[in-house]
Amino acid sequence: MAMRTDKSVKSVDRGEYAIAWALLKSARLSAKLTQRQLAVKLGRTQTFVADVELGRRRLDILQLYDWCKATGTPLAAYAQQVESTLDVLPKHLPSAMKVRKPRESAK
Q1: Which terminal CB of the chain, N or C, has fewer other CB atoms within 10 Å?
Q2: Sorting pLDDT into bands at 50, 70 and 90, what band is 5?
Q3: In the structure, what pLDDT confidence band is assigned to residue 14 with cuts at 50, 70 and 90?
Q4: 106 and 61 in contact (C-beta within 8 Å)?
Q5: Inter-residue long-range contacts of 75-84, CB under 8 Å, 24+ positions, other chains counted
Q6: How far apart are alpha carbons 48 and 59 in whole angstroms?
Q7: Domains of the chain
Q8: What is the DSSP string of 33-61?
Q9: Share of the chain above pLDDT 90, in %
Q10: What is the pLDDT of residue 32?
Q11: What is 16-29 written as a DSSP string?
Q12: How far apart are CA 13 and CA 10, in angstroms?
C-alpha cells in the first residue's frame, strides 16, 4: 500500500477523512441507530456524534473503538473498510471541505 502524502496539505485537511467519516456514519446507520441513540451508548451528546460525522471533531483510537463497539462493528473490520476504500481511490483526493461551526447570532 502506497502512503498518501502531500506536504502542502495538513493531515486534518486531507480528503481521505471524508471516507473515514462516511464509514463511521455508515456503521451507525447499519446498526439502525439514530445519532441520539448512539450518543447515549457512548455517554456523549448527539452534537458530538453529529460533529464526528461532519468532520468537525476527530476521534482518538479509544473513542473510535467505543464507536465501533457501540455500532457492532469490529474495529479491525472498520479499519479494513477504510484501507480497502482508500486503496482504490486516486492517490490524491481533494482536500476535505472545512466545516465551520455556526456563528453565534449577534445579541
Answers
A1: C
A2: low
A3: confident
A4: no
A5: 78/23, 78/24, 78/27, 81/23, 82/19, 82/20, 82/23, 83/1
A6: 10
A7: 14-87 (1.10.260.40)
A8: --HHHHHHHHTS-HHHHHHHHTTSS---H
A9: 63
A10: 98
A11: HHHHHHHHHHHHHH
A12: 5
Inform me whether the pLDDT recorded for 78 exceeds 50: yes
pLDDT over 70 for what percent of the chain? 72
pLDDT at 100: 47
Angular region, 83: left φ>0, alpha ψ -120 to 50, beta rest: alpha
Count the neighbouring beta carbons within 10 Å of the beta carbon of residue 14: 19
- Closest by Cα among 64, 60, 82, 61 to 1: 82
pTM of the model: 0.74
For residue 17, the one-letter residue type is Y
Beta carbons within 8 Å of 11's beta carbon, 6+ residues apart: none
Q: Which three cell numbers stand for residue 74?
A: 469490529
